[in-house]
Amino acid sequence: MIYLYDSITIVSRFQEEFWKVMGSDYLPEMEQNGMRLVGMFMMGIHYNENLALWEFDDWATLDRFQGLQDKHPLAKAWQREAVDYVTDFTGKVLQPAPFSPTLAKLKKGDYKSTIYLHTLAKVHPGKEDEYMEAVGKELKPMARRWGMKLVGCYKAVAGTAGSGEVINIWTAGNIHGDWVKIRARSLKDPAYKKWEAEAGKWRPKVIYRFLYGLVPYSPLRTPFLQEPAAPEEVRTVAMPEVEWK
Fold first, then answer.
1. Which of 78, 177, 220, 222 could form a disulfide with 39, with the two C-beta atoms 3.0–4.6 Å apart?
2. Contacts for 122 with CB less than 8 Å, ≥ 6 apart
3. How far is CA 232 from CA 54, 180, 222, 245, in A?
4. 3-state SS class at 126
5. How many other CB atoms are there within 10 angstroms of residue 61's CB atom?
6. What are the two backbone dihedrals, phi and then psi, of residue 186, each rounded to the nearest 5 degrees?
7. Cβ distance 218 to 40 under 8 Å?
8. What gap in Å lies between CA 139 and CA 132, rounded to an integer?
9. Distance separating alpha carbons of residues 17 and 149, to the nearest angstrom
């Protein structure tokens, strides 16, 4: 699998409208062409910054999608439409660790959460695979004891990314109080103190951010949202002026 990580800055007052229009005008067609949405999130603190995470079967599917962006009439129409909502956009191509769950596994398991923890580790050059292996063997079981599940572990391999970027996404509870308890358990865990001391040999810096799973059609989302409507129903909500016969 290959993943596309899109950081999207949206005009704040149009955020929910953008989500609806994306779900009705863009998502169904792209999924028919091999692009599967893993998660659509609002970034904590920078609330007009969104993250869309997509899954592709392989590099060939990603290449075909990029060709579609240049030729497909609907993709061109979406690019014109998105100008009304999007003020900035950057993308990274990510390669998953062997233990990183696929979208199919995420859908079958209990990975819905209101809050997700996003970590971006700056890893020493050439140490990405070694660091990710340690995350899988040491940090993943540790975090599970605290009440977190690993949603994904990836390294950046192309796009707008710096060298040695490793991104992890974890479930982090449904209210901030859940995260306070998770963090308290981690700080009391001797294994975590040892991990932090040893992990420095791989990554001198980690950036932590919250993601909020508030988009109804996102596979990774708060469990309190209703199941997403069929594409036709979503479109009616997003564009009520259109009559469907």
1. 220
2. 162, 164, 165, 203, 204, 205, 206, 207
3. 22, 40, 23, 11
4. coil
5. 17
6. -65, -40
7. yes
8. 10
9. 30
**By the 8 A CB rule, do 203 and 124 touch?**
yes
Q: Are the C-beta atoms of 92 and 158 separated by less than 8 Å?
A: yes
Continuous segment of H or E residues that includes residue 9? strand 2-10
What's the CATH code, domain 2-238? 3.30.70.100
pLDDT for res 67: 72
**Side chain identity, residue 84:** D
Q: Which helix (H) or strand (E) holds 211?
A: strand 205-212
59 Rama sector, left if φ>0, alpha if ψ -120 to 50, beta otherwise: alpha
**What's the token pair of residue 136?**
């899988």
- Looking at residue 25, the DSSP 8-state letter turns out to be I
CA distance 220 to 53: 10
Beta bridge partners of 4: 54, 93
Q: Which long-range contacts (C-beta less than 8 Å, at least 24 apart) are formed by 67-70?
A: 68/33
Helix, strand or coil, per DSSP, at residue 166: strand
- What does pLDDT average to in each consecutive run of 10 residues of the chain (245 residues)? 90 81 79 87 83 91 75 69 76 94 94 94 92 95 95 87 87 91 93 90 90 92 73 39 30
Can you tell me which residue has the tokens 């990774």? Answer: 220
Q: Where are the domains of the chain?
A: 2-238
Residue 85 vs residues 17, 149, 223, 237: alpha-carbon distances, Å: 9, 33, 27, 17
pTM for the full predicted model: 0.84
Residues 111, 116, 117, 122: is their CA dihedral positive or negative?
Answer: positive
